[in-house]
Amino acid sequence: MKMADHHQAPSPSGSTPRRRRFELEAGLLVALSLILYFTRLTDLSIRGEESRRGRIAWEMIQSGDWLVPRVQGLPRLSRPPLQYWTIASIGILRGEVDAVAIRFPCVLATLFTVLLIYAHGRCWMSRTGAFASAAMYATFAQVLQLGRLGETEALFTFLLSAALLVWHIGYMRGWSPVRIWTLAYFFAALATLAKGPQAPVYFAGGVGFFLLVTRQWRFACSWSHLTGIALYLVMVGAWQIPFALALGQERVSYVYLSEVAKRFQNRQILTFASHLFQFPLEIWLGCLFPWSPLLIAYSHRDFRQALNQSSRPVLFLAGCILISFPTVWIPPEARTRYYMPLFPCFALLCGCVLEQWSNTLATSRSRFQSWAVWFAQPLRFAAVTAVIGLIYVGPILSNQVARSRDATLDVVRVKELLPPGTKLYSFGVVHHLFSFHYGSELTHCRWTTDAQTIDPQLEYFCVDVTNSKHKPLPFEWVEVARVNCDRNERERPECEVLIGRRVRTTEVLAKSPSTDSTKSESPSRVGQIEKTARQ
To answer: For residue 127, what are the CA distances in angstroms to 27, 45, 119, 338, 356?
Structure first.
């Protein structure tokens, strides 16, 4: 079945020049992405959820269990495991799970997203618009921030935008329906395995809205569509069914819905109203800066009427945005990064504005005509976006590095304090930054007030503390060290892990009556430790 209203890419005569231009522009985009995302990849310390994801990937490699994400042997069910798989795979190739293993899949996904935007733009825009769209995405403020970190957003953005944009590329190019639906659902399934139900909701909503508005709904009612759905179910089910058999269907529901439920925890009217007002401004003025002002053009009727053949692609992109926006606008605890998968659509809309503006000035006798010709050159526009990106990669990133705190050395010193072969116990699940840098097995213990239930072999232990507060332990102990797990330097740490040593009864009796057995053997900062645990 061939689409009756598909668009062909604007191209000059002859296929060879067009292919050469594509290679040149794609090369420029690759170079831009390499400069902005692959340089200084490890300068910033591991932060946020990166250490948790790294620890889970490390445990997958150590245990051989790639089915259930675990932290210290306990299931971690916040999302499906695709990102952990990618980190663990890079870790195996590198021989260790480090900052490169955690971040490389995400920067690679950012590069692929940039190229995907360009490929979509070339189906309905000129070289100028397609290249500008991809370069704009690479220099969106929030993409510069998250596109180089080992968070889920960059990988999820590529997979979900691939599902939407590949579907639309096939629709515009007149691919066979089977090819369109299977490729789209292939990426939708991977996106689901990366983050959960947000993927099928956004994909079905965007595509369904477009087909309904354009009265092409029969395209969805076909065996080809059912083939795509079947592929999606097989891919997701290949992980979900064994997972459900291992942990139960209730845990599957928790994986998919727990993070969604957290967005509605704060139900105060003031918080809800504030979010409704601030969230669109945060997206427009913050996340999409500096290119977001271009979107104002769509509020003018004359601009919309001048779109001509671009109106259908603009309708598809705008529909994907409008259908999905309430899912992050209404929940009061939603964050702007949750909407990053739709940023490629915003980038293409911005590129369309720049193209229309450039074409208008280029055909007029305006004094700004030279500026239009100047912007029409991909190499020059690449230089502009490179300068914008380098402002972040240079001084802004350097400032973040200066303020960040790296716990690596502190954890190394802790390991030096412990006797060789020490088995470190953990009361509760300790902060993931400590467990990631510790890089060895931590034996998990539950909090208890009964000393008889404590493993008699327990000598050294660690526990999360906040401002030196923690639950009491049913034995005498002394403090060995503390590790600050904050992402940035601050006067008083918010997250700390205490490492202690259990004091045996014989040691307590041998001490002087005036000795406080709960007093720490050393100052709280690892760098100031004067006594060693071996004493």
So the answer is: 13, 38, 10, 30, 12
